[in-house]
From TrEMBL:
<dbReference type="GO" id="GO:0004672">
    <property type="term" value="F:protein kinase activity"/>
</dbReference>
<feature type="region of interest" description="Disordered">
    <location>
        <begin position="587"/>
        <end position="609"/>
    </location>
</feature>
<dbReference type="InterPro" id="IPR001245">
    <property type="entry name" value="Ser-Thr/Tyr_kinase_cat_dom"/>
</dbReference>
<dbReference type="Pfam" id="PF07714">
    <property type="entry name" value="PK_Tyr_Ser-Thr"/>
</dbReference>
<feature type="domain" description="Protein kinase">
    <location>
        <begin position="45"/>
        <end position="319"/>
    </location>
</feature>
<keyword id="KW-0547">Nucleotide-binding</keyword>
<protein>
    <recommendedName>
        <fullName>Protein kinase domain-containing protein</fullName>
    </recommendedName>
</protein>
<feature type="binding site">
    <location>
        <position position="80"/>
    </location>
    <ligand>
        <name>ATP</name>
    </ligand>
</feature>
<dbReference type="InterPro" id="IPR053293">
    <property type="entry name" value="OCM_Kinase"/>
</dbReference>
<dbReference type="GO" id="GO:0005524">
    <property type="term" value="F:ATP binding"/>
</dbReference>
<dbReference type="InterPro" id="IPR017441">
    <property type="entry name" value="Protein_kinase_ATP_BS"/>
</dbReference>
<dbReference type="InterPro" id="IPR011009">
    <property type="entry name" value="Kinase-like_dom_sf"/>
</dbReference>
<dbReference type="InterPro" id="IPR000719">
    <property type="entry name" value="Prot_kinase_dom"/>
</dbReference>
<feature type="compositionally biased region" description="Basic and acidic residues">
    <location>
        <begin position="591"/>
        <end position="601"/>
    </location>
</feature>
<keyword id="KW-0067">ATP-binding</keyword>
Length: 629
């Protein structure tokens, strides 16, 4: 196999430097004040045979030859050879890699696979790393049942969570967490084999249009990872999903969504909001945190610090009689209340001096049932308690109120996480409206915008609040939108249909349902919408009765047929009862008429009455006859 691949000494337009130092002892080199560049001369690499084939490329066993005046060495290495990318994008990949390389060296991060450097062989990017014994995936494949014991999973999980947390602190996302990327050395120590290759490939187009470069491996991908521009942004919580999938696979020996096609996985995870099954009988903290990893809304997922805490707290759990007992005590319930998980709440703990307001429910107009509208925190019952109580001073009240911390939220510079905002400088390619995902006390903010794969980070002065959208609101395309960003259905008679927001993604992308449309079979009735392109519709904003009635039809497709049926029914019923009335009157009058002709009243009164009624009767008879004819 190796012979098939030619090693071209000058295959690219880049300058290569020889890596100096012993790559097998990288951590000694790491401390060097001026780290060497990562580029390796492709001529110094000799590929031997392929040892793995992955989603992003192949892994080769190779030797890396290094020599200088005082040494001449060959090192056994593993080479991750990525699928080809466009030539003009190679340079940007290499510079991103160099940035990561320098960062990894300066931070001396333990637990990431030892990198030797990077090269380009026959136009393909090759990442040289230390050759390990194999991966956790390989170890599982060798075991009966293909699964690991919980203590091993906890041990690996803790080591991996630590290193992922460090990568996150450097703003690097891994996006490809899975057992085949967890490498093992001869001492059964685990190292992260993929340090963010999908992240480095973000925005890169493959030259072959048939090859879709996905941002991860489908079985392990979070909902927002499939189309980060549309359903994003991808954040640290995206790795929580992949981590959760890997742990489940290690414990069960079965890959999440095993046997499903990529399209089926997409449908299950992204459209149907299905989650990988968390097996029962695990320590409570592990079960809670794994369930949290599979929350659809990334804001509700735990961070690596939470995962690490849960894993470390479960290390000493004892298994007896089919159940795990939590030696460290039962952890607080992490279940979701009113749309928020405790993981969400724990990302922003209150401090004394914080300005607060009643917490708004997730994507809803309503606030929590809290007596506080606005105030400031004057005391914490327990600094570290995420579900604890705080003392809040409210204007015009003599003494502070004791309120549950989960019912209030921090306001900084007039902004709160979850607010809808737009950029003050509107000159942007992405949607102008987005959702504030975090606001720090120092004024740093992050926002999710439709059209941006990753978080927008800036200062609070660069954003301003806009009117929010809520789940349940009806929306219509703005009249000036001729070609909407996403497909939008039309009414039967022409014109854009009106839909109802059924979900709001964390970048502000609206998921709109059209209950006023009758759909057949598999026809979709759920569409995405750019918040920039729609306006809210309500009875208050509908001018006139006709438009109000038309809006009523948007509530359900059955309104129109029902109202038609009702009108016909009413018309028929009215016609019948009018007819009955007329007939009854005619009969009565005819009877009266006959009575007046047959009998002469002694006082002549009846006869007089009949006389003035006659023309009337004749007229009605005529009318009835005409109708009958
Ligand atoms: N540095 C290494 N040392 C030894 N073996 C390795 C190394 N890197 C990868 N491998 C082997 O190659 C196998 C496949 O790795 P690879 O990363 O190509 O596959 P993958 O993780 O399924 O795909 P991808 O990372 O492209 O999504 C691993 O299970 C492991 O056996």
């Amino acid at each position: 196999m190796a012979k098939d691949i030619e090693v071209s000494p000058s295959g690219t337009a880049f300058d290569y430097e020889l890596y100096e130092g012993d790559p097998d002892h990288l951590r000694t080199v790491v401390a060097a004040p001026t780290p060497a560049g990562p580029y390796i001369d492709p001529a110094s690499i000799k590929l031997k045979h392929r040892i793995g084939r992955g989603y992003f490329g192949d892994v080769w066993s190779a030797t890396h030859h290094q020599s200088a005046t005082d040494y001449d060495e060959n090192h056994e290495v593993a080479i991750k050879m990525l699928h080809p990318i466009n030539e003009d994008q190679v340079k940007s990949f290499l510079s991103k890699f160099e940035e990561l390389w320098v960062n990894l060296k300066s931070k001396q991060i333990q637990g990431v696979c030892c990198l030797h450097g990077i090269s380009v062989i026959s136009g393909k990017i090759c990442i040289a790393m230390r050759s390990y014994e194999g991966s956790v995936g390989d170890k599982m494949a060798r075991l009966k049942g293909g699964k690991l014991q919980l203590p091993d999973v906890l041990r690996y999980g803790i080591e991996l969570a630590k290193v992922i947390q460090e990568l996150h602190s450097m703003n690097v996302l891994v996006l490809n967490l899975k057992p085949t990327n967890f490498l093992l050395n001869e001492h059964d120590e685990v190292f992260l084999g993929d340090f963010g290759i999908p992240y480095l490939l973000l925005g890169v187009q493959p030259p072959d249009s048939d090859l879709v470069l996905r941002l991860g491996t489908p079985n392990y991908m979070a909902p927002e990872q499939w189309e980060p521009e549309v359903r994003g942004p991808i954040t640290c919580e995206t790795d929580a999903w992949g981590f959760g999938c890997s742990i489940i696979e290690m414990l069960t020996g079965v890959q999440p969504w095993f046997g499903k096609s990529v399209q089926d996985i997409y449908r299950s995870v992204v459209i149907n909001h299905e989650k990988p099954q968390v097996l029962g009988g695990l320590p409570t903290a592990i079960e809670n945190v794994l369930n949290g990893c599979f929350e659809y809304d990334l804001r509700n997922r735990p961070l690596m610090v939470d995962i690490l805490e849960a894993f470390e707290s479960s290390k000493n759990d004892v298994y007896s009689e089919g159940e795990w007992s939590d030696i460290g005590g039962t952890l607080s319930n992490k279940s979701k209340t009113r749309g928020f998980t405790t993981w969400y709440l724990s990302k922003d703990l209150l401090r004394v001096g914080d300005t607060i307001r009643s917490r708004k429910l997730f994507n809803s107009r309503k606030s929590q049932d809290s007596p506080v509208l606005e105030g400031s925190v004057v005391g914490l019952e327990k600094d570290t308690d995420r579900d604890g109580f705080v003392l809040v001073r409210v204007p015009n009240l003599p003494s502070p109120l004791r309120v549950n911390a989960s019912t209030i939220e921090r306001v900084t510079g007039g902004l709160t996480a979850g607010d809808w905002v737009c950029l003050v400088n509107e000159n942007v390619k992405h949607s102008s409206m987005g959702i504030l995902l975090s606001v720090q006390r120092d004024g740093n903010v992050t926002v999710g915008f439709l059209g941006l794969e990753t978080l927008w980070a800036g200062r609070s002065s660069e954003v301003e609040k806009v009117d929010p959208f809520f789940v349940g609101q009806f929306v219509q395309l703005k009249s000036n939108v001729e070609t909407p960003r996403f497909e939008w259905p039309q009414k039967r008679g022409g014109g854009w249909a009106t839909g109802r927001i059924s979900q709001i993604l964390s970048n502000g992308c609206l998921v709109v349902q059209f209950p006023g449309r009758m759909v057949f079979g598999d026809e979709p009735n759920m569409f995405l919408a750019d918040p920039d392109e729609v306006i809210q519709v309500s009875f208050d904003t509908c001018p006139g009765m006709i438009v109000k009635y038309q809006h009523l039809e948007d509530f359900h497709w059955s309104i129109r047929p029902l109202s038609i049926a009702f009108s016909i029914f009413t018309a028929v019923k009215l016609g019948v009862s009018v007819g009955k009335c007329i007939n009854a009157k005619l009969k009565k009058d005819r009877k009266n008429h006959e009575t007046s002709n047959d009998s002469r009243a002694p006082d002549g009164n009846v006869g007089r009455k009949s006389a003035w009624l006659r023309p009337n009767i004749m007229f009605k008879e005529g009318a009835v006859t005409a109708t009958a004819r």
